[in-house]
Specification:
The protein is mainly α. It contains 5 helices and no strands. α2 packs antiparallel against α5 and α3 packs antiparallel against α4. The longest helix has 25 residues, at 106-130. It starts with a helix and ends in an 8-residue tail after the last helix.
Length: 138
């Protein structure tokens, strides 16, 4: 495991945990969605033997994006729009590699990791801004 992977794994645990502890309802829901998607992604590789990983990744991405869309419609916060933007990038990368039958390479890893960092950063922004919100019902 490289240092960058270790940092990304640490952030993948720390930011959703902070959202659960310090965030309000939308941040908690977003962190639960993120953690469930991460767990399903890890488990899908192990249980499928990576034979159908493309379809599984696209399904997970689609469900994650749909969940974030529901959050965006319900809560209407800018940080959720950033979540949606990074999910569209992640979905596009996974779809490109699946449709072109390209092997998962360093470019795939870089693009996926970058989209994950943006997801985590937008969730962290949501936690930070939640301290200043008085009312979460619109």
């Amino acid at each position: 495991m490289t240092a960058i992977e270790a940092i990304l794994f640490a952030l993948s645990a720390a930011v959703p945990l902070a959202a659960l502890v310090m965030g309000k309802t939308p941040e908690r829901l977003a962190s639960i969605i993120f953690v469930l998607a991460a767990l399903f992604t890890i488990l899908s590789g192990h249980f499928s033997g990576y034979q159908h990983i493309g379809i599984l990744l696209l399904t997970i991405d689609g469900l994650m994006a749909l969940s974030f869309l529901i959050l965006a419609i319900r809560y209407n916060y800018l940080w959720v729009a950033l979540l949606m933007g990074s999910m569209s990038a992640l979905f596009a990368v996974h779809a490109f590699y699946f449709m072109t039958h390209r092997p998962l390479d360093r470019t795939f890893a870089l693009a996926s990791n970058l989209a994950t960092v943006v997801l985590l950063a937008s969730l962290a922004i949501g936690v930070w801004t939640s301290r200043h919100r008085k009312d979460e019902w619109h």
